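Q: Structure tokens for this one, please.
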Amino acid sequence: MGGAVLMITITDRSRGEEFAAWYERQGAPLVLTALGQGTATTEVLDCLGLEATEKAVLFCVAPHWPRLVRRAAKELWLDVPGRGILMTVPVSSVGGAAAKEYLLHTEHEEAEEMTEKELTHELIVAITNQGYTDQVMDAARAAGATGGTSVHAKGTGTELARKFFGVSIAEEKEMVLILTRAEDRNAIMKAIMAKTGMRTAAQSLVFSLPVSDIAGLRQLENEE
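A: Here is the predicted structure, written as tokens:
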């Protein structure tokens, strides 16, 4: 569906309410906040001026407004090291006319249609057993990743997993979110699967999503 995105914002947990309030002022109808944990090494944290703090991960389905991303970069100071990052992932459809109107209303400004452009970054999502985030990130860093954010989750479908993989699946999970350059995606995913895949104790499942807009990575990219 053209013109709809999932906006994902990651910042220190102490700023979560500030960021959520900013989205509300922009007219976003629904913002979900999850509690996460940073995974970057001490060297990267020092490079970016970050501290090893707990994170807030905000999710918001909204019209595709590149101007909103640029506004967030300016008003939330995302170009300042340590403030956070924002990315948008294209949404293909929304179920129901009422839900679509609620989530994607264009009262303040018109949504822009997605145009074909080269996607420079992707979001890698690794779903792993609780307690194995460090192993996932060690494998990812060895392949070029600089850091990530983990979110605790609870899994289902253990019987189906046993049918397909022949193994028992733990219910307590961690979702590890790794934003990376598109050209590094394959190497990072292969490394995670090789070191912490389904046949290991970590039992990691890995997939990636295209990222259409980004704010907050300037400092990281300047250092590489």
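A few notes: The first helix runs from residue 16 to 25. The longest strand covers residues 54-63.
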